[in-house]
Amino acid sequence: MDLPKRLPTHVAIIMDGNGRWAQKRGLPRVHGHFRGAEAAREIIKTTRELEIPWLTLYCFSEENWKRSEEEISTLMNLLNEYLEKELPEIQKSGIRLKAIGRIWKLPEDVRKKLIETMEKTSNNKEMTLILALSYGGRQEITDAVKKIISEGINNPEDVTESIINKHLYLDMPEPDLLIRTGGEKRISNFLLWQIAYTELYFTDVLWPDFTKEEYLAALHDFSQRIRRFGGV
Ligand code: IPE
Ligand code: IPE
Ligand code: MG
Q1: What structural domains and CATH numbers belong to the chain?
Q2: d(CA 158, CA 189)
């Protein structure tokens, strides 16, 4: 497939469907997460190759803590493994790693590794990879309001969109394209504030089956969209 003419600056992805991918094959749900992690590696690589500078991956939501201990620990181990094994590749490709979410809730070992990786990659300039971990859009806005109040900003006139923006987890360009795999047509508490004018793309493809070709199809679809931002 040829490359789309106009690429987004920031792609955000809700990587959904790992459990169903495994169930369809009579495998335990966690197997779907193993394959999902592989798909994520491939998409990160492709994003870098396409020179798309920002990629945000929804890895674990605040609500995902409701899942079984086994499933949660599999996901945490996969994250740990990713951080450990991929560091040389991340460095080589000039990727800066960032995280959004209540990362203080992550298990100690994962949190330490995450912070270490973020520090080690902080000067990389080619691409920013943002992992949404223990993330919820409502929680992000709530946490922003808490920070604003704790800084003593209490004059209503001072509460502007820009002030709220500044107190979100990370200063980032708004996503141009949001992809959700796995067939559900909902946002599931992802980036509520930031996606006000984001183009949405839903596909039935389950995340472990989301290949480079599927990704390019989404990018082609995006390149056809006419964005008006409320104008004419
Ligand atoms: C997405 O796949 C991965 C996470 C939420 C961590 P799911 O685990 O939600 O898979 P389905 O939706 O049950 O198939
Ligand atoms: C959204 O998927 C969260 C991630 C992909 C990390 P879920 O599977 O948790 O969302 P719902 O429950 O279908 O809305
Ligand atoms: Mg799901």
Answers
A1: 10-137+174-223 (3.40.1180.10)
A2: 27
